[in-house]
Amino acid sequence: MYKRPKHIAIVCNYEVRPDRVGGMDRFFVAYDAFAKANSFQVTWYFSRFEPYSFYSNLTIKNADGENVESFFLKQLAVTADEYDILITHFTSLCNSFYKQARKIQDFEKVIVVDHNPRPLNGFTFKKRLKNRVKGLLYHKYVDQFIGVSNYTSHHIIKDLGLHVAGKTTTIHNGIDTSQVCTSQRNRARTYTQTDKLKLIIVSHLRESKGIQDVIAAISKLEPAELQKVETHIYGSGPMEKELKDQVALNDLSNCIFFKGSSAQIPELLADFDYLLQPTYMECFSLSILESLAANVPVITTTVGGNPEIIIEGENGFLFEAKNTTRLIQILKDLLNNEKGIYTSTSDTIRNGYTLEKMVIDHLKPIN
């Protein structure tokens, strides 16, 4: 008797945009191809989708700005699609959605992938209580929780309760190293007005990404130091005007440049000395992995999964979020050749945090 391929529904609270081909976009496309090669059928649900060639081989249903969980439940109720497996990315960790989905359709397995960072100072008591109640009520409708870092997995259990520990595991993010150009820059050189320390920030421009702290730190450098550094900011977001105003107010337009969103970040990294990521919230950053793979060390905060990959003095430097005094000192030390990362940073990433490994690991729970 003919047996149809198992059908995976993947629900992503994620906007697909042609002006941004990021690490998760590459993961989605690679996962789709690998799943199909292993005899699965895959249908993707995105919160918003603008069609373009990179996603041309995927079967996609577009929520067009509607809550993607609500959109999926409506589609599930009115279509004849039969799904065997439900996987979610960037959605709520544990709520009534999973109960409702399983009432409509009898899934063999439901998997939740948690990419969501936690606030710097933790959740409020009210939010912690809500999470714990939801964990008690709805965890039985989820078969596996996957954290993208050990930090994330720890917080899944902390948020929902010890009863989810046995079905919580970590699958680290990975990147397509073939897309990354390797830097040959000599970071041991002396920085000058003509051969500057080049920093890159790749980030959504919002308050929790801490870019305002970088601008504040750079504004405290001595005039001679300012002439030896330039920072390129790639990204867009609600704080863009405010950040540009901060740069203008501090007369830093000659050393801080806003470059907008780009789909070419893996290629661009090789032209920089360090990636700067001053974030207040993080799980396990794909930008950090791409930067290290490009042989570009990272200056970042001690939040989330960052300390799982950044080793102080070996492949980068760490500072506490919002600690501009420490950031200023790191920048001064680099500019004055008092410290630096002079060895390659790429081998660890190219050997252990690849997109191929990430895809294989994510398919294992349903094979």
UniProtKB/TrEMBL annotation:
Domain annotation Glycosyltransferase subfamily 4-like N-terminal: ranges: 80-178
Superkingdom: Bacteria
Tell me one GO molecular function of this protein. Answer: glycosyltransferase activity
Database matches in Pfam families: Glyco_transf_4 (PF13439), Glycos_transf_1 (PF00534)
Positions of the Glycosyl transferase family domain: 185-339
Its recorded name reads Glycosyl transferase, group 1
| UniProt keyword terms in alphabetical order | Transferase
SUPFAM superfamilies in alphabetical order:
UDP-Glycosyltransferase/glycogen phosphorylase
Organism (species): Nonlabens marinus S1-08
Q: Does the keyword Cell membrane apply?
A: no
